[in-house]
Design goal:
Blueprint (H helix, E strand, L loop, with lengths): L8 H23 L1 E3 L5 H29 L19 H15 L5 H29 L1 H9 L20 H11 L1 H17 L7 E3 L1
Parallel strand pairs: 1-2
Helix pairs in contact: 1-4, 2-3, 2-6, 2-7, 3-4, 3-7, 4-5
Length: 207
């Protein structure tokens, strides 16, 4: 398990800053632009529906990951549930959710840019976390790396126990972060309504 489970405070701060680096410019971009597909309602509907599906998958996936790592972040190498199919499932589902929000803009260029920026920024974070995990767990982590994909899940390797120790307080604190994609999609819809009412200016269109 990498993700934030073993993130040291400096890495956590870096991850938060990177997330803001992605979210703030995207929000400003969408606030003063609109989809160039507005004249083709079918295309816009397909793109937005794709966004809804991805946001749902991303949010549920993050909750699934949080169930397994909440309260297990200080020395336990979690290799069950989502961590049996990917070493970074939390980041994978975060990308899925971010893509959902990006498709909610009813554009193609913004999702493409989201993938590129995510790969560049979070690839570095993942390497830092894996270095820390290797130092903490040695051969156990190396064996885990040999059998578990680094990022994209392999569902054929899924291993889930019939029962798992839950930590409700820690899990509850993770719920809000898992649902951020839904809030963002709602905010972007509000922006679209304000633009339609001409309460927000539109300076350019994005395909």
């Amino acid at each position: 398990m990498t993700d934030r489970a073993y993130s040291s405070p400096p890495i956590r701060r870096l991850r938060v800053r990177l997330s803001r680096l992605l979210a703030v410019p995207l929000g400003l971009l969408l606030m003063f632009s609109r989809s160039a597909w507005n004249d083709l309602p079918l295309v816009g509907t397909v793109l937005f529906t794709t966004g809804l599906v991805l946001v749902a998958i991303g949010s549920m996936g993050r909750l699934w990951c949080s169930l397994y790592i909440a309260g297990h972040r200080n020395g336990t190498l979690v290799t069950l549930g989502p961590y049996s199919i990917s070493r970074n499932p939390l980041y994978f589902f975060s990308l899925v959710g971010a893509l959902g929000v990006a498709f909610g803009s009813q554009t193609i260029l913004i999702p493409a840019g989201t993938v590129l920026v995510f790969a560049l920024l979070y690839g570095y974070v993942i390497k830092m976390e894996e270095t820390k995990l290797s130092a903490l767990h040695g051969d156990s982590f190396k064996d885990y790396c040999k059998t578990t994909p680094r990022f994209f899940p392999d569902f054929s390797r899924l291993k889930e126990p019939e029962a798992y120790p839950a930590h409700p307080v820690a899990f509850r604190s993770d719920i809000s972060s898992a649902l951020w994609f839904i809030w963002l999609l709602c905010i972007f819809e509000l922006i679209e309504v304000l633009q339609a009412l001409e309460l927000l200016p539109v300076f350019f269109e994005i395909y």
